[in-house]
């Protein structure tokens, strides 16, 4: 899938599900529920034990319209290992020099206007606003005044109830971690996960209607 197709698939999903847990053992079951509920962009964080194996498994398991990437990519070695495992995109909470040329879309993290502008100047097709919970949708709206062409993906502590507000403020997509996953990746209820995922997908549809 070409670079822009990956990014456009993320934008269409509206939500990137951030899979983070002590181990990645349950990511396969979690991913099935998320995709069935309408979330078709998944980020496997490298801080989860067994993340690369899980990422490779999800790439084989999930339908071709689902994009699976790696998160918490902090080095060129992380990027290379993630791409070898099948990652269609890479995400980091910070800028990681050199990773933007790794061969798949890289979405670096930034927070201040200067950091966001600098990240966009590297060619990043999306810039991850992190931690988004430290500010709010108004901050994003204000950023888009002087930086209208920068596509921003707020991530970090965003509640499902706030998804529509972030998209309404101009977010290209939002990253949802704990508020979406809950304890589903650590033995919790998959039925409750499905309910949360459907509410997130509905929020995207509402914001774009």
Automatic annotation (TrEMBL):
Pfam families registered for this protein in UniProt: Aldolase
Pathways involved: Carbohydrate acid metabolism
Keyword Lyase among UniProt keywords: yes
InterPro entries according to UniProt: Aldlse_KDPG_KHG, Aldolase_TIM, KDPG/KHG_AS_2
GO molecular function, one term: lyase activity
Known partners and oligomeric status: Homotrimer.
Signal peptide: none
Family: Belongs to the KHG/KDPG aldolase family.
UniProt protein name: 2-dehydro-3-deoxyphosphogluconate aldolase/(4S)-4-hydroxy-2-oxoglutarate aldolase
Species whose genome carries this gene: Pseudosporangium ferrugineum
């Amino acid at each position: 899938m070409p670079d822009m197709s990956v990014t456009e698939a993320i934008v269409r999903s509206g939500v990137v599900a951030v899979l983070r847990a002590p181990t990645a053992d349950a990511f396969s079951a979690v991913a099935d529920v998320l995709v069935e509920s309408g979330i078709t962009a998944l980020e496997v964080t490298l801080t989860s034990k067994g993340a690369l194996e899980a990422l490779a498994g999800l790439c084989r398991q999930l339908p071709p319209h689902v994009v699976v990437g790696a998160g918490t990519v902090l080095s060129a070695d992380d990027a290379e290992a993630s791409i070898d495992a099948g990652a269609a995109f890479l995400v980091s909470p910070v800028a990681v020099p050199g990773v933007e040329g790794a061969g798949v879309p890289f979405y670096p993290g930034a927070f201040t206007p200067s950091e966001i502008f600098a990240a966009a100047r590297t060619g990043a097709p999306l810039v991850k606003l992190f931690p988004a919970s430290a500010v709010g949708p108004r901050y994003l709206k204000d950023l888009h005044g002087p930086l209208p062409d920068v596509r921003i993906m707020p991530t970090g502590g965003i509640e499902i109830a706030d998804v529509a507000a972030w998209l309404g403020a101009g977010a290209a997509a939002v990253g949802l971690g704990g508020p979406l996953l809950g304890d589903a990746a650590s033995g919790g209820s998959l039925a409750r996960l499905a309910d949360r995922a459907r509410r997130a997908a509905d929020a995207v549809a509402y914001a774009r209607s």
